[in-house]
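>> received
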Amino acid sequence: MEFSEETLRTQLVKYKFRDLTIEELKSVVKIYPNFRFSMDTYTFKDGSLKDLLNFSGTIPVKYQGNSYNLPICLWILDSHPFAPPICLLKPTINMKISVGKHIDAHGRIYLPYLQNWSHPKSTIIGLIKEMIEKFEEELPLYSVSSSDEAKQLELLSYIAKITTGETDVNSKTMVGGQKKDGGFNKVTVIGAGDLGIACVLAIAAKGAADQVVLLDLSEGAAKGGTMDLDIFALPNVEISKDFSASADSKVVVLTINSLGNAQSYLGVVQSNVDLFRGIVPAVAHYSQNSVLLVASHPVEIMTYVSWKLSAFPKSRVIGIGCNLDTERFQYIITNLLKAQTIGKEAWIIGERGEDKVPAWSGSNLVTCHQTEGVVNDNSQEQLANRAIEVLKGKGQKSWSVGLSIADLIESILKNKRKVHSISTLAKGCCNINSEVFLSMPCILGTNGVTEIIKPLKEDKVVAKKLQSSAASIHDLQQQLKL
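>> returned
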């Protein structure tokens, strides 16, 4: 449909910032008059459907002395211009997609401009300009009408991938003198705040990975801890602003949080969701077999969001959950309160924060060193309450959480099959019927969660608390716009 402001205004009636969106599209059409719009149904990775504005046209690209008009489609989200559009190549019947640094096999476009989208600095015109620049470096389409031309472009694309360290998934290339195959353990940490840097230092200290990439998505020049990491160059640690640096990671840690000006809790969470919308699909594109480990707030909801946006199996999307609290809880019981558990473990499960729940797995017996006697269920509860009181006095500093994350990463990379209390999909546990993530004791290995360890005995109090947390989390999730 040709551009008509009146028609567009009618079709965008459900868009939150309709006037801003219309004004921006008008400016695009002035420069690229071939663009047309229509309201169509977009299918997200999780299978959900939504009516969105389809803004399609061609962009001029010069490659090796030839001029091409490449067909693209921009799906404008209803939160535009505060969220980036979903960008796709739309090859004609005589074109094929050349998968590369910025294009996946489905034609989805991934660019730094999208990842760093921030209104009002970011615009569709600016996006198209970067698109043209990147496509002039590596043409994303080739013609199948001429076999010679197609083979030539395929060869050029393959050479370009080799020079950037990318090859076929079955090949074994070298990165920093080491093989980038099944034995090379690469971890990417997204977010260069205090927690992100603490994670990098903790992973490096434990020697848990062969390479650590710190993805700094902040604007401007390097500063603070990132600058210090540059100055004092840790071995096998790379700092980058380009998502392609994260390619082939075994684990990707998300520590980033939105710094928006939302006034309500729902607004704060929605800001994080909008931020993740530009990050998680890119992560999934570059590291399709990775485990996503979420440390952003609130961890239960952002783990759910990451699961939906990545379309990864539930086993490979986890949150840090109550792992740190559980390790401290067990330490307090054994070393400070001098109680020895017999054939069982003590856990902190459920929701991270004030609503966390102490629980037990295995035998219900506890021996106290002071009395050498066996403690009954009531005393067990008293012991848990005492441990929780001590735990409340322990803050969660970035370096503490970083150490906990490094411990989780080590369990994954070394396939230790150790049990951790982490955020996992809790549907089916304790009569929870909704898709929510809660901390549960899980066996953790190379492919993420292999098994959830449920408490040996039914505890109605614990179950009720978990159900209450699940209900409140699910209620908030229902109000979010993914």
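>> The longest helix spans residues 460-479.
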